[in-house]
Amino acid sequence: xxxxxxxxxxxxxxxxxxxxxxxxxxxxxxxxxxxxxxxxxxxxxxxxxxxxxxxxxxxxxxxxxxxxxxxxxxxxxxxxxxxxxxxxxxxxxxxxxxxxxxxxxxxxxxxxxxxx
Amino acid sequence: xxxxxxxxxxxxxxxxxxxxxxxxxxxxxxxxxxxxxxxxxxxxxxxxxxxxxxxxxxxxxxxxxxxxxxxxxxxxxxxxxxxxxxxxxxxxxxxxxxxxxxxxxxxxxxxxxx
Lengths: 116, 114
Fold this sequence. Notes:
Chain A is mainly beta. Chain A is 0% helix and 51% strand. Chain A has strands at residues 5-7, 10-13, 19-24, 31-37, 44-50, 53-56, 65-68, 75-79, 88-95, 97-98, 101-102, 106-107, 111-115. Chain B has no helices and 11 strands. Chain B has strands spanning 4-7, 10-14, 19-25, 32-38, 45-51, 56-59, 62-67, 72-77, 86-92, 103-104, 108-113. In chain B, the strands form 2 sheets. In chain B, strands 2, 4, 5, 9, 10 and 11 form a 6-stranded mixed beta sheet that branches. In chain B, strands 1-3-8-7-6 form a 5-stranded antiparallel beta sheet, with no helix packed on it. In chain B, β6 (56-59) and β7 (62-67) form a beta hairpin.
């Protein structure tokens, strides 16, 4: 069964450093989402892509976070500079588009970021 | 924007008993309500979902009910088993094209006592 892939699985960095996370969605899934999950809470949407275009980045802290999906397939989320409060699980999800609307979202295993 | 409240935060039940988790949402435009199960250190996995044109959906021991008027939906697990122990998240979405990210509740830690 196809799954969403993410790397790295774990990342430890010092504050003020730059970090980057990679996501490869399920083949054929046009919609890709990045979520942040703080320990003990539900995931919160950061950014949504439809193919290579950003559909929603209203919750993305744009002063330090950036996301791209250049060829409409895999995606990279970057944080520069990292802050202590960025420690969290970063989850990628993808969904198939049918009839103009997105279907079930399937999640990747996540990247657990620790900022020291 | 949408706001989803989930209760209880922790639920402990005896193996074989039923468990019920409740969620409320604020945006009447939301029309899709999935439930995810997340085991420690693992990805959230969809266990059941319901769309706003349906009042109830069942899949073996798991069922979800939706009350659009009251804007609340519930997850019901019957004959609980040890492998049901996990954190369960409800979510709401407006699925009509465009921005359709999920808004999640804070999660319920379900503990199945042997």
